[in-house]
């Protein structure tokens, strides 16, 4: 198994652009869009897909005029092109696990037409059935209009505990250990994705939290991030409980799990540095 940490394009809320996406060049307030490409023996698996290639070609339609204006998204680094730069084709990606279907995570699904998309049932239901102002802002029907091949997960009796997290399930059809870890709150069916590597577990926590300081003791978070996070929460209490559990896990002495979130530039830089040191 080989792991690649990729930035599918974050936001630059205070304007400006990076020279490139190298770790260490991020400015205060900048975010990343942390996706993970996993090389298994016979296939590639992707965790989250970023805004996608279509966002580069037709941004207002693909991510929405308001999002473009308010968050200043970085749209010029679609994951599919990074996969191709690594020497693969888009057809090599056979499985995608999406932490949730927000426009900045699901926008690249259409770029991988041969992939089965693993998603929580509650998330798919939220996308297709319930529409309040939050759903209208965060979900873009155009991004799923191609009709992905879904593999849907509901919480059921056969699921198990994993380091105190409940209703955890193995991603279907893979021999390696990849787990769906329900972390609802940001959205109804938000999940984390746990992967067992030769060096131990990592957990991509998606948007269950957004800043590394939230895992610190005591937790801290920049005001702007806190406002945005709370505005977009679907279930604030569930989010708070899941953050609490994640903190407990991170603070365990010699914690057996490397936890990171989707948008924290500091965590992304740490993982990329460890990767270039051959440690991730
Ligand atoms: Zn997000």
Characterize the structure shown.
This protein is α/β, with parallel strands linked by helices. It has helices at 53-57, 59-62, 65-71, 79-85, 103-106, 121-128, 133-138, 223-232, 236-251, 265-276; strands at residues 2-7, 34-39, 44-47, 93-97, 116-120, 149-153, 160-162, 165-170, 178-182, 191-197, 200-204, 257-260. It has 10 helices and 12 strands. The strands form 2 sheets. The chain has a 6-stranded mixed β-sheet. A 6-stranded mixed β-sheet has the order 7-8-9-10-11-12, covered by helices on one side. The longest helix is centred in the C-terminal third of the chain and has 16 residues, at 236-251. The relative contact order is 0.15. Mean pLDDT is 89; it is low at 18-25. It binds zinc ion (ZN). Zinc ion binds next to helix 5.
Task: Please write out the topology.
Elements: E1 2-7, E2 34-39, E3 44-47, H1 53-57, H2 59-62, H3 65-71, H4 79-85, E4 93-97, H5 103-106, E5 116-120, H6 121-128, H7 133-138, E6 149-153, E7 160-162, E8 165-170, E9 178-182, E10 191-197, E11 200-204, H8 223-232, H9 236-251, E12 257-260, H10 265-276
Parallel strand pairs: 3-4, 4-5, 5-6, 11-12
Antiparallel strand pairs: 1-2, 2-3, 7-8, 8-9, 9-10, 10-11
The protein binds zinc ion.
Zinc ion is lined by residues 102, 104-105, 207, 262-263.
Structure, briefly:
The protein is an alpha/beta fold. Helix content is 28%, strand content 22%. It contains ten helices and twelve strands.
């Amino acid at each position: 198994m080989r792991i690649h940490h990729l930035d599918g394009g974050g936001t630059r809320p205070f304007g400006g652009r990076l020279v490139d996406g190298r770790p260490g060049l991020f400015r205060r307030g900048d975010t990343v869009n942390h996706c993970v490409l996993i090389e298994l023996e016979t296939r590639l698996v992707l965790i989250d897909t970023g805004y996608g290639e279509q966002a580069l070609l037709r941004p207002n339609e693909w991510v929405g005029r308001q999002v473009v204006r308010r968050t200043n998204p970085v749209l010029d680094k679609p994951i599919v092109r990074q996969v191709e730069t690594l020497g693969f084709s888009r057809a090599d990606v056979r499985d995608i696990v999406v932490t949730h279907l927000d426009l900045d995570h699901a926008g690249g699904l259409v770029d991988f037409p041969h992939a089965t998309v693993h998603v929580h049932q509650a998330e798919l239901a939220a996308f297709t059935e319930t529409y309040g102002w939050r759903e209208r802002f965060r979900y873009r029907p155009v991004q799923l209009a191609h009709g992905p091949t879904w593999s849907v997960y509901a919480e059921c009796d056969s699921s198990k505990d994993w380091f105190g997290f409940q209703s955890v399930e193995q991603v279907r059809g893979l021999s390696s250990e990849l787990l769906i870890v329900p972390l609802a709150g940001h959205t109804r069916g938000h999940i984390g994705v746990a992967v067992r590597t030769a060096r131990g577990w990592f957990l991509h926590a998606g948007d269950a939290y957004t800043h590394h300081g939230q895992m610190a003791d005591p937790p801290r978070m920049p005001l702007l991030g806190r406002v945005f996070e709370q505005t977009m929460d679907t279930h604030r209490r569930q989010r708070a409980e899941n953050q609490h559990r994640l903190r407990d896990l991170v603070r365990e002495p010699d914690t057996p799990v490397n936890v990171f979130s989707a948008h924290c530039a500091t965590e992304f830089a740490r993982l990329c540095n460890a990767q270039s040191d051959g440690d991730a």
